[in-house]
Amino acid sequence: QVQLVESGGGLVQPGGSLRLSCAASGSIAMINSMGWYRQTPGKQRGLVARITSGGSVNFVDSVKGRFTISRDNAKNTVYLQMDSLKPEDTAVYYCHAVIGLPGAWVEYWGQGTQVTVSS
């Protein structure tokens, strides 16, 4: 069984920073992409940032230049460094991973962590 465990959410003032972490554990043969999505009430969950096993990254336009994504393959962990946070970044952030299991690639989600940007 595979689990994604997130940490690092919280309350921060506009212009501040937070770092989210997500560690994958369990019977993992290989992790393809890892990334972060976010969701606000009444809206669909949307991609924030994603990084492949080869290190290719992509970001939603609204966070480019402010957020950085990285991963530690040895620890099966992905990080999202969020700087210059804005109130519109307030959302529940979900970790996402595409993990190789025997015979299949499977998507997994974390439980979500709340990020609130407010003065």
What does this structure look like?
- The chain is an all-beta fold and 119 residues long.
- The protein is built from no helices and 11 strands.
- The chain has strands at 3-7, 10-12, 18-25, 30-39, 46-51, 57-59, 67-72, 77-82, 91-101, 104-109, 113-117.
- A hairpin with a 4-residue loop joins strand 7 (67-72) and strand 8 (77-82).
- The N and C termini lie far apart (40 Å).
Task: Please name the defining characteristics of this protein.
119 residues; mainly beta; seven-stranded mixed beta sheet; 0% helix; elongated
Spell out the blueprint of helices and strands.
Elements: E1 3-7, E2 10-12, E3 18-25, E4 30-39, E5 46-51, E6 57-59, E7 67-72, E8 77-82, E9 91-101, E10 104-109, E11 113-117
Parallel strand pairs: 2-11
Antiparallel strand pairs: 1-3, 3-8, 4-5, 4-9, 5-6, 7-8, 9-10, 9-11
Give the H and E element order: EEEEEEEEEEE
User: Which outline best applies?
Assistant: elongated
What is the mean pLDDT?
95
**Biggest β-sheet: count, sense, barrel?**
7 strands, mixed
Radius of gyration: 14 Å
| Strand segment count | 11
Percentage of helical residues? under 10%
How many helix segments? 0
Going by helix content, strand content and strand pairing, the class is mainly beta
Distance between the termini: 40 Å
Poorly predicted regions are none
